[in-house]
TrEMBL record:
Name under which the protein is recorded: Nitroreductase
Protein origin, superkingdom: Bacteria
Keywords from the named record: Flavoprotein, FMN, Oxidoreductase
Species classification: Bacteria, Pseudomonadati, Pseudomonadota, Alphaproteobacteria, Hyphomicrobiales
Keyword Flavoprotein: yes
Annotated family: Belongs to the nitroreductase family.
Annotated Pfam families: Nitroreductase
Domain Nitroreductase: 19-209
Annotated organism of origin: Mesorhizobium hawassense
CDD domains linked: PnbA_NfnB-like
């Protein structure tokens, strides 16, 4: 029994470390990730649960020239992020309210503060946001889609799949940044990747090794205490 408990504790520590060390990294090294590693991460992630095992995910893995074409198509579109139309799905509420407004502001101020960007330096904020569209210089950029005929349950399944990718990446010493910012630019992305009309662009994700020299990667988000959002009933 003691041996079993030690093994369980060791396994829990490994899993917890992968989850706790996951964060949105916004500056990557150029070191390439081999295809076998990417395939292994995605294969593990696909063990995510899905209603009646529908497995609603579709992944487009991009590197090199194709990844650059996606970046160019978005950055040369002339459509600013604050003006872009979220016409496939809504990620955020039309009007933020508490406690979400405070959390959102803390996230933005914390990131820009780490970069030395002041609250009125709009051009610098825009430039930082645009780094989404070069996948924060990661060597691998993934675009995720879902069949538009599926319902909300499949989107829940999709979230578990995405989380699995990020945790599996951490287990291999890699980092990620999930990026909803790509979703409203589906018109620019579709022709590059030949994405059919029946698929909705869910998000993008950067994958690579963290550049620890960059100040933006020193920023850490907080989490609300468990007492704030958990109720136990017997």
């Amino acid at each position: 029994m003691l041996e079993k408990n030690i093994r369980i504790a060791s396994d829990a520590e490994i899993v917890d470390e992968a989850i706790m060390s996951r964060r949105s990294v916004r500056a990557f090294l150029p070191d390439m990730i081999d295809d076998d590693t990417i395939r292994a991460i995605l294969a593990v992630a696909a063990r995510a649960p899905s209603g009646t095992n529908m497995q609603p995910w579709r992944v487009y893995v991009t590197k090199g020239e194709v990844k650059q074409r996606i970046s160019d198509a978005i950055l040369n579109s002339g459509i600013r992020a604050e003006k872009v139309e979220w016409d496939e799905y809504r990620y955020y509420p039309d009007q933020f309210f508490e406690p979400y407004l405070t959390r959102r502001r803390a996230n933005g101020f914390g990131l820009y503060g780490a970069l030395g960007i002041g609250r009125r330096e709009v051009d610098k904020m825009r430039a930082q946001h645009d780094r989404n569209f070069v996948f924060f210089d990661a060597p691998v950029g993934m675009i995720f889609t879902i069949d538009r005929r599926l319902n909300q349950g499949s989107w829940i399944d999709y979230g578990m799949f995405l989380q699995n990718i990020m945790v599996a990446a951490r287990g291999r010493g890699l980092h990620t940044c999930p990026q909803a910012a790509f979703a409203p630019y589906h018109r620019q992305i579709r022709p590059v990747l030949n994405i059919p009309d029946e698929e909705i662009v869910v998000c993008g994700m950067a994958l690579g090794y963290e550049d620890t020299s960059k100040p933006e990667n020193e920023f850490r988000t907080d989490r609300a205490p468990i007492e704030n959002w958990v109720s136990f009933a017997e």
